[in-house]
Amino acid sequence: MPELPEVDLVARSLNSLIRARTIVSAELLRDRLAPENTAADFAAGLANALVNIVDRRGKHLLMRLNNGKTLIVHLRMSGRFVLLEPDAEPPKFTHAVFQLDDSRRLVFSDQRHFGLMKLVETERLAAAKEIAKLAPEPFSEDFSVAYLRGRLSRSSRSLKEFLLDQTHVCGLGNIYAAEAMFAAGIHPAVPAKSVGPVKARRLHESILAVLDEAIQHNIGRPVDPEDLEGSYFSGAASTGWYVYDREGEPCSNCGSAIVRLKQGGRSTYFCRKCQRK
Question: Which of 3, 6, 179, 229 is catalytic?
Fold first, then answer.
């Protein structure tokens, strides 16, 4: 599932392509893509609306329109946008089509059918359930060391499960959580509340560092209108990920084999020597 840096890339790419464009018409082809909007309301709410900006909140894309509405989009596992030339055929599994005023079409394709959209009044965006529950943005002043330490101290869940909870830390998924814990030198199975002040500060710094590295890697990449899915950053250019998906390979710090642990049905990768309990 795309994490914060990948969603950030999609948001910036879409913004560069469709900002100030008018959506002449919109068609919802799969009702379950937008279960809280009828197909008729979806079409009416988007018709003749100009795109003011496309940005994001956590892992959610936000298409803000000039008619007082915002389209919330969650890509989930396989959702992607494609900007088509007038005569181009839409890809398989197209679930929504947005006809633009320059004759091109923006389509949303989702092979695994997990993506979600919701059209809301912009003035009520902050109260929408998808947005209201989210933790502060990682690069905001609200996501401070004190905030993180406070949240950690009240949770009995494992650190890995804590980091994946978007109400505690916004934007992390399986990849960046593993990389942040490795960078901080903390075992993924320790109870979150056992992470003391020194380690909490180190974890805070590591979260920001791994996210920033991935975001910076994507800045300046050419935008491909036919591939707006936010390809994953694969870690430092020379080494790749330090632990994620590297089971059995040597740790870049100590040479010990990277191990895999199942937590909450997901795989966690870490170094037993560098991340001791």
Answer: 3
Alpha carbon separation from 210 to 79, 96, 138, 172 (Å, rounded): 24, 33, 11, 10
Options 2, 138, 188, 225, the catalytic residue:
2
Residue ranges of alpha helices (H) inside 29-170 are 39-46, 129-132, 145-153, 159-164
Is 137 in the active site?
no
User: For domain 145-270, is the CATH number 1.10.8.50?
Assistant: yes
pLDDT of 174 above 50 = yes
Instruction: Examine the residue annotation and report whether 266 is marked as an active-site residue of this protein.
Output: yes
- DSSP tag of 88: P
Question: Which listed residue (30, 193, 201, 266) is catalytic?
Answer: 266
Confidence of residue 234 (pLDDT cuts 50, 70, 90): low
Alpha-carbon span 49 to 124, nearest angstrom: 18
C-alpha span between 249 and 239 (Å, rounded): 12
pLDDT, one tens digit per residue, over 196-205 is 999 999 999 9
Candidates 59, 64, 104, 199; catalytic one: 59
Whether 59 is catalytic: yes
pLDDT at 230 (0 to 100): 56
CB neighbours of 78 closer than 8 A, spacing ≥ 6?
A: 110, 111, 112, 114, 115
pTM of the model: 0.93
Residue (of 89, 105, 87) closest to 97 by Cα position: 105
CATH topology of domain 4-132: N-terminal domain of MutM-like DNA repair proteins (3.20.190)
2 is known as an active-site residue: yes
